[in-house]
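Changelog note: in this version the structure field was regenerated for every chain. One regenerated record is shown below for reference.
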Amino acid sequence: MGHAWEERDEAVVAASADEVWAAIATGPGIDSWFMGRNQVDPGPAGSVTTDVGGFVSTGTVTAWDPPSHFAYRSDGPGGRFIAFEYLIEGRDQGSAVLRLIASGFLPGDDWEDEFEAMTAGGDMYFQTLVAYLDHFAGRFATPVNVTGPPVADWPAAWAALRAGLGLGDQPAAGDPVRLAVPGVPRLDGLVDFVNSQALGIRTANGLYRFIQGYFGSFVLGHHVFSDTDEKQASQAWKTWLAGL
C-alpha cells in the first residue's frame, strides 16, 4: 500500500536570510549540517546531488527564489519520492524565520520502520541546521561520515556509546561531554540534541551526530569547523566506534 507523509518545522535563527540561503542552497552549506557530500547546480532548472558513502541521489529543483524560497524533489521506483521546501523570512538584527516542509511517499507494506527512522532523522537534521545557523552561520565545515560495524543489540550498543561519551543512561540537552579520540582533537562540549535514534554534541568547533542507522549500523555524521584531514578523522572515528 505504501504511506504518504508530511512534516513541518519552523524556527527563528540567529542568521540573516542570505546566510540561511547559503546553508540550504549551496553544496558547502548543506555539507555543514546534512548527511554526506552535497552538490547544488543552482537555478530554477538546477539539481541537488547527495552522496552518502557511494549511495548517490539527485533531486530536481522545483523552486528557486533567493533568498526566500528553495525546494527540490528526488524520485525513486514504485512512486517513492522525498521533497524539501524551505521558506525564509528575514527579520531585524540579522535574524530570520526558517520554515521547512518535508514530504514524501514510501511504497510497499513494510514502510513503518523506514518511516520511524526517517522521522527521527528528519528531526535531528532540522535541529542540526538550526544549531548551525545559530552558532556557525557563514562558516563551512568539513563533513566526517563514518559507518560502524553491524549492530546486533541496539540497547547494548547505545549503552556502550553513551558510556564512551561519558554520559548516563538518559542524556539530556546541556549535559557536558568530554571525549578523547586518538587522532582527532579532544572534544569538550555539550549534548544539544537527543531522541530515540540520535544523539548530538556541539563543541566550539563542531557539530557531532551519532545515529542509529536504518540498515543496522551506527552512522556518525560530524561537521568540523576547523582545519581537519577528512580521511584521517574518518579513520580515527571508525577505529573508536569499532572499539566500543
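Spot check on this record: The helical segments are 17-25, 27-31, 111-135, 154-164, 230-243. The chain is about 25% helix and 45% strand.
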